[in-house]
Amino acid sequence: MTIRIPRQNFGLSRRRFLSTAAAAGVSTIAMPYLSRAADRPAVTHGVQSGDVSTDGGVVWARADRPSQMLVEVATTDTFKDARALPPIAALPESDFTAKMLVDGLPGGQDIFYRVKVRDLAHISVESEPVVGRFRTAPSDQRDVSFVWGGDVAGQGWGINPDDGGMVTFATMKKHRPDFLLHSGDTIYADGIIPSEVKLPDGKLWKNVTIPEKAKVAETLDEYRAAHKYNFLDDNVRAFNAEVPIFVQWDDHEVTNNWSASKDLPATYKERNIQLLAARAARAFHEMYPMRESIVEPGRVYRTIHYGPHLDVFVLDERSYRGPNGSNDQTTYGPDAYFIGPEQMRWLKRALLSSRATWKVIASDMPLSLIVYDDAANKKGSEAFAQGNGAPRGRELEIAEILRFIKTAPIQNTVWLTADVHYAAAHYYDPNKAQFQDFEPFWEFVSGPLHAGTFGPNELDNTFGPEVRFVKAPGEDKQNLPPSAGLQFFGHVKIEGATGQMTVTLRDRADVALWSTTLDPKIG
């Protein structure tokens, strides 16, 4: 459930933010309430914030019963002169989750928020508070820092306390990023989490388990449980409380290589892929602090403006795609859809209207890495790439976008992605491409954040990618556990004074594996 808090006069500065609260006569001391320690409600899975802009962001929490979510916001961690926001309901229909868009906040400001839940059956009984924080996007040319990656709790590699849990989240948190761009595969709804996995050296990987992860997700509650499983990890909850998330989805939020034509394996009793996708989408939107679209409820693609230097264009490469298959079409039509016509139009408009120095296109799949729908037999296409040669099938959309970026012209575009479970840097050069009507650009790949490591994948030459860096286990060492150390994330820094962007690929031990600095084109 999402409720938008009406814009109030928070002002444009921390001083005015605080003075407005005082002038309104808002009490900063919680009213006494009846103590029922044995039966107080609880915030069950920590707090999250997300889709942060220059004047606000979304706050999320989950209760353990029908409740009201109570949120206070302040510009200091003492919560002196905090503003109390109107309560909103957390009901069984949304699995007791609630999220609130808080706006009218000062730009470039640390915002502290405190969440409690109040039992609807005993309105005087409240939970212990849980505190989180986020920084609103800068309204001036300050430094910006963020991390990105994808792929969490896949291939049976769940939360192993003996290995420190989901360690990469703790590593990313040390960088104090402004936000996490989560590139999808937030869960693996199609994979189980066994209690133990035997490693090649004979040791055991021991997972925290829940009943719902003993089978593939089919019911709404099972999809919800897959997301909640990740929130059981201490590192994830600590990260979520301090770092906002900009989230997109990929296939494993529903099932492996999901498309409308998906032929489900025998492990599924429910055979209707559209019904599974609808349940998965509902759980996804319930469990993350996303701004919701009034135009199209449930929309994932959106633009997030993060100050003068950065716009992020979050794509949805699942909801509008045609069937996976050969995709050999030379003319554009429904079977070749990947982004789809309406999302294509939106992306062009959004890129054209952007005034940010850098335009980051967040793609849940790489542009030129071959991903087979039937990996065992190397048949069918799951991704954009269709093999060497001129653009065909889904590649026609990428050709159209790249041509548009060149002719508009739109400068300083960078593509960030995950999905393939290894780290790479690709430089796209039209002089080395079969399709040449575009300007050179970079694509950076990171992940997994906490899943099996694979790769590297084959590249096709349609758009002329050159591998400048790759870190993967190799063909003879696939599906390595997180304890092998090959868990990756990307770290982006944009310097406020110059607009320079530095992209670094790191592993879970925080070793900088590769880095490059890009100068923005001006004019």
Task: Describe the SSE topology.
Elements lengths: L1 E3 L9 H10 L19 E8 L6 E7 L3 E8 L8 E2 L3 E3 L6 E6 L7 E10 L10 E6 L8 E6 L17 H8 L4 E4 L13 E3 L5 E3 L13 H11 L3 H9 L2 E3 L25 H15 L14 E4 L4 E5 L26 H13 L4 E5 L9 E3 L4 E3 L13 H13 L5 E5 L5 E6 L12 E5 L19 E7 L16 E7 L6 E7 L4 E7 L5
Parallel strand pairs: 1-7, 10-11, 11-14, 16-17, 17-20, 20-22
Antiparallel strand pairs: 2-3, 3-7, 4-5, 4-6, 4-8, 8-9, 10-24, 12-13, 15-16, 18-19, 21-22, 21-23, 24-25, 25-26
Helix pairs in contact: 2-4, 3-5
Please tell me about this protein's structure:
With 523 residues, this protein is α+β, with helices and mostly antiparallel strands. The chain is 15% helix and 26% strand. The protein contains seven helices and 26 strands. The protein has helices at residues 14-23, 167-174, 220-230, 234-242, 273-287, 341-353, 395-407, and strands at residues 2-4, 43-50, 57-63, 67-74, 83-84, 88-90, 97-102, 110-119, 130-135, 144-149, 179-182, 196-198, 204-206, 245-247, 302-305, 310-314, 358-362, 372-374, 379-381, 413-417, 423-428, 441-445, 465-471, 488-494, 501-507, 512-518. The strands form six sheets. It has a seven-stranded mixed beta sheet, covered by helices on one side. A six-stranded mixed beta sheet has the order 14-11-10-24-25-26, with no helix packed on it. Helix 3 (220-230) crosses helix 5. The radius of gyration is 23 Å and the shape is globular. Mean pLDDT is 92; it is low at 1-35.
